[in-house]
Structures are given as C-alpha cells and as structure tokens.
Automatic annotation (TrEMBL):
Entry's Gene Ontology molecular function annotations: serine-type endopeptidase activity
E.C. numbers: 3.4.21.-
Matches recorded under PANTHER family: MITOCHONDRIAL INNER MEMBRANE PROTEASE SUBUNIT 1 (PTHR12383:SF16), PROTEASE FAMILY S26 MITOCHONDRIAL INNER MEMBRANE PROTEASE-RELATED (PTHR12383)
Gene Ontology terms: cellular component: mitochondrial inner membrane peptidase complex
Protein name in UniProt: Mitochondrial inner membrane protease subunit
Organism of provenance: Hylia prasina (green hylia)
Subcellular location(s) of the protein: Mitochondrion inner membrane
UniProt-listed SUPFAM superfamilies: LexA/Signal peptidase
Lineage: Eukaryota, Metazoa, Chordata, Craniata, Vertebrata
A biological process from GO: protein processing involved in protein targeting to mitochondrion
GN (gene name): Immp1l
C-alpha cells in the first residue's frame, strides 16, 4: 500500500515537472498573454489592455522599426515595459522631445534599439534612458486581445514622422 502511494506520488511529481518544463518553454520561446499598464502607449494600447506577445522574433533578430515590444526596463530589471521600436542599430534617431525647438539627432549603437512610447508627452523611454540593449527585448506584441471591441492587429504608430530614413 505504501509502495503504491509512493509510486503515484512520484508519477504525479514527474508529470508536474514535465508539464512545468513544457509551459516554461512555451512562454519563454513562443509567447504569452500580457496585461499592459500605464499611459505611455496611448492611443495604440490603453491601460489594462490585454495583448499577445510572441517571442520568436527576438531569437531570430526579426525586430523591425515600428514593432511594439516588451522589454526588461533599463531602470528596474524586475519590471517590463511596452514601447515601440523607433530605430535599430546604425539608424539616425531624433533624441529630443517633440516640443523642443532645436532638434537633436544621434545614431543607435551596435546591439541596441531606440524605443519610444506612442504617447510622447507622457512616456519614459529612450529619450530619458538612451538606447536599450537588444538583449533586454522579451517579445514582440502583435495582437490585442482585450477589450473585444478593439480585438485585432495593432495599428501603425501615430508618430510615424519620428522615423527617419537617413
């Protein structure tokens, strides 16, 4: 009887570890559901919107300008941020705020990306902390799940003029 109970317990633990590993790999390499908070991506993503993030793009270096990404915060490694990619390594980007009279530009260094929120007046982004290492990217957001009336692929940046093609 004890042998039978131990056998069932170890089988249960074995299945738990196996399914835990499968779940970890799925969330780490395929993607997952993310609840976004904060006003920095308005109007594209509102506070409490639920989105789907896929993680394969970052592993295959398929992140492009205009993509919305989930990134480990450069200021607080325990939290993630949601921002739009404005520039990739070697790109010339506008580093000043939209309200600045004199515009300043810089080049994104190798192995980095330039990130900005769609709500330029209320976003802490690369204009504050500089270029972000590519390795901090966790995934690319491509589908809004909630609210249902806004379900679908994410729209283009309302700040398309900030993308420079020099």
């Amino acid at each position: 009887m004890l042998r039978n109970a131990l056998g069932k317990t170890f089988r249960f633990l074995g299945y738990t570890v196996q399914y835990g590993c499968i779940a970890h790999c799925a969330f780490e390499y395929l993607g997952g559901i993310v609840v976004c908070s904060g006003p920095s991506m308005e109007p594209t993503i509102q506070n409490s919107d639920i989105v789907f993030s896929e993680n394969l793009s970052r592993h295959f270096y398929c992140i492009r300008k205009g993509d919305i990404v989930i990134v480990k915060s450069p200021n607080d490694p325990k939290s993630n941020i949601c921002k739009r990619v404005i520039g990739l390594e070697g790109d010339k980007v506008c580093t000043s705020n939209p309200s600045d009279f004199l515009k300043s530009h810089s080049y994104v260094p190798k192995g980095h990306v330039w990130l900005e929120g769609d709500n330029l007046r209320n976003s802490t982004d690369s204009r504050c902390y500089g270029p972000v290492p590519y390795g901090l990217i966790r995934g690319r957001i491509w589908l809004k799940i909630w609210p249902l009336n806004d379900f679908g692929f994410l729209r283009a940046s309302p700040n398309g003029h900030r993308f420079l093609d020099d």
